Amino acid sequence: MQAKQGDLLATLDGTLVVSCQAESGLPLDAADHIAAMARSVVLGGATGVRIEGAANIDAVRAAVEVPLIGLIKVRRDDTEVYITPTLDDVAAVIEAGADIVAIDATSRPRPAASKAMFASIAARGRLSMGDVATLDEGKRALDAGADLISTTMAGYTDYSSDQRGPAFALMEEFARAGLPFVAEGRIWTPDEAVRCFELGARFIVVGGAITRPDAITRRFADEVAARSARPQLKRNPT
Fold it and tell me: Which of 84, 113, 147, 236 has the most CB atoms less than 10 A away?
């Protein structure tokens, strides 16, 4: 199994993974739509996909053969952690067909300890990804048994700085500390993606810039509206 897991990670190193997700209530929020999205990004060159929800994971697993990072988002009253927060969620993600299980590995109180979560994933023969927000959390996640850490939660906790773009500063900290990491979160352009690799990312995960037509359209619409509102410069006669 270790050799197989090593081969899986080798296929992802230096490549693009695409997060195919849709917020609840949006038109694409259906398993068959998510599966079609996953097939489309693989055709476009994605070497892996990141999928939320057991039903979506199951549908995507039947549609593509590339490595699948799986997670479940659950909002609970007893914790701020919502990415695969419990051992039951880990089991559901694995049973649905994920190769890598992503969990929130921040330092916030959680229903189950990160170490127990990572151990449960390993016992089922899968790899684990700890989504973190700080350098210390990255170190702790790896010490607790995570196979990978990612910058996913940077800017999404009340103690990590608000960010408009990728978490380049955190990537630099990981690189200086010699921690292997995955870059994920607010990567909108190919130039930003290349920068992540220059800072040492093993692979990158891009979501909304590729798979959120509502967000992509809004960026264009907002820019068009802003430009339309500016005074038009008069051209000098020639």
Answer: 84
